[in-house]
Queue: 2 jobs
Job 1
Amino acid sequence: MNTSKPIIAILGSLNVDLVTRTPRIPAAGETLEALSFNTGHGGKGANQAVACARLSRPSKSSATSSSSAQVDVRMIGAIGKDDAFGGPFLAALEADGLDVTRVRRLEGQKTGVAVITVEERTGENRIMFVPGANHSVPREPLLDGDEDVLVLQLETPLEVVFLNMQHAKEKGVDVVINPAPAVPLPDDVYAGLDHLIVNESEAALLSGKPAEEITPESDLSPVAAEFIEKGVKNVIITLGGAGVFYQTAARHEQSQSGSLIPAKKVKVVDTTAAGDTFVGAYAVAVAKSKASRATGTPFDIDSAIAFANKAAALTVQKNGAQDAIPWLHEVDDA
Ligand code: ADP
């Protein structure tokens, strides 16, 4: 383990959102004047990396000063080499304090984009997602070996995710996986997995339980038990405005049921990136606990979830994706 600052690596997607707001959805063959056009940076990987960086740094003004950062945060992924989007994307991530030296700029590839049309009147959207370079992340071990925590999602090829997860488990790196977008996973993914974070629909798909059974009112212990019996140590099911259900392997072994922790009561503006903020905040708490765990203090999952709930509740009070992810001082002040 690293003896100085903990290190989090996020292996995942980087996408540019191209958002056009229109008075209505154009018909086939029609040219329609739009109301506005905006670009934004996204991708679950990049969003979670930004959350990790901001939630371990006091504020934007000190983002690039390494002395004020509590955690070193590395992004691993791929963007296009010669397209217009890659350079500004990396510059924005660096301004948030992220180490982007492991993001590959791939020759002849394009940065992933989501082309989004939003109909102004209804808010209804149409999205075309082009994964581009995200699908060409090299199928090889991408960790340096000195990381404390690896954060994964499923927007990069599964082969890359599984290979690096295995590598991390062998090196004693704590793995946090947010398997989104969810696809059924082989059982060996769960063996020795430290932290599984899923929302309601992901929990249903991965456990094979009917979606109607995954609600804040249901007893989610049997759902969590499915994952724990396959080898997961901490199962966290996020339930939107209803909060979070969690269960640990230790409590399961003692036949204790899991707990529901309510979300903060706030005025919701836009829930985009709430889940990504939650995952990033939780990963920061895992990383910060690593040094004390080495001296025998167990991981305090309740305070990790409380911190993540607080951070995600700030995200839902703002519009946008990465724009809505808070800095540490905002969570401390909330
Ligand atoms: P996802 O965006 O992945 O579907 P959720 O909707 O479950 O994830 O939200 C993730 C977390 O964001 C929740 O566990 C909670 O902490 C926070 N959150 C989401 N919606 C709200 C809300 N309406 N009020 C307060 N917090 C919220």
Note: The mean pLDDT is 94.
Job 2
Amino acid sequence: MKKIMIKDMPNNIGETVKIGAWLANKRSSGKLAFLQLRDGSGFAQGVVVKEEVGEELFAVAKGMTQETSLYVIGEVKADDRSSFGAELNVTGIEVISAANDYPITPKEHGTEFLMDNRHLWLRSRKQHAIMKVRNEIIRATYEFFNENGFTKMDPPILTGSSPEGTSELFHTKYFDEDAFLSQSGQLYMEAAAMALGKVFSFGPTFRAEKSKTRRHLIEFWMIEPEMAFVEHDESLEVQEQYVSHIVQSVLKNCKLDLERLGRDTSKLENVKAPFPRISYDEAIEFLHEQGFDDIQWGDDFGAPHETAIANHYDKPVFITCYPIGIKPFYMQPHPERDDVVLCADLIAPEGYGEIIGGSERIYDYELMKSRLEEHNLSLDAYAWYLDLCKQGAVPHSGFGLGLERTVAWISGTEHIREAIPFPRLLNRLYP
Ligand code: ATP
Ligand code: MG
Ligand code: MG
Ligand code: MG
């Protein structure tokens, strides 16, 4: 007998098949039992008809508890009522193991309870759909960069120094030396770009963020491309092409998942390059016009500011050329102004906030050295990075996209904790 996955049922209409599954939910009457089956590849209904299967098997079907694992055997039937298009007419059940008092029932549960049970919560339909969207974004990321001549290079996670300050760093020991968990692989990716031209990384990053917001995780995954011979404006073009590609890929390949999430896809269809661009100066002016008097030129934006700006557009919007004082040391100064740098943040629509931070990087040795000194960073710790400026350095640009912010936005998930399988949050290290 053919062993298949639920997702392949529509291609096996009329066949008798065997599927390994869990019982997600169940309804039954005296004559019929409806089994909601889940195998990770999808969800499907299995129908057990007492008259067809007999007393004994029907009693087994009716007696199974939620999340019991089983092999189910049956004939695949076309079913037009479900968007999935198929259901299983069950003829055999082999229980593998029972589940005892499974805590997540179809009723509503509080967030803390669900977070305590994250190891089980992942089995729910909504979480399944979010993880499928996450996976599609990762797949489309590899596709985009590989098709555009980038090489994947992996920066280290244990590092001796870090690009941005020390307040948010996780400190650890590296035998007798001090070490830190990576906050960003950028500096290493710059070195990689000088070797391979166009590179990208995808890996975990760690920030001891003391803030409790719906956009910040302690551990999150970042995609960090870095490109030699690419200037600021050209980098923005890559960014808008990349973000368009992942949004359009999810729309195309995760239709059922977006439907299950209740995502208003009309808000995503329009996400195609080019994206609007406004300067930091214009953004400040706009906010003042909107009545925000809590922000002055020279301040970084908070979530309400980003949301007010984003609400003005139906696509992600670039805010370019921030004041030099609120950005890291390595950003290239504006050629005509000494108070701003060649950088941009990409702000997602619908209040999901900053999804990308990027910039052109300094490559002049003397300028880099003086910027490091102005930031009181140790020239010893950054010796190898500074050395890059002396070895045939070229203009180059790069950016970092936060995967979970992007998952939250595209899937329409209110809080970032649901955008990663096992979120690390301020007060949560388990499960
Ligand atoms: P924010 O202003 O929202 O705190 P940031 O400017 O500190 O973000 P960057 O250092 O520019 O962030 O990092 C690049 C990207 O990584 C951000 O645009 C965002 O998508 C993501 N990111 C940053 N911090 C976090 C976090 N704590 N949790 C999840 N994603 C994050
Ligand atoms: Mg931050
Ligand atoms: Mg920011
Ligand atoms: Mg940023």
Note: Residues 125-147 form the longest helix (23 residues).
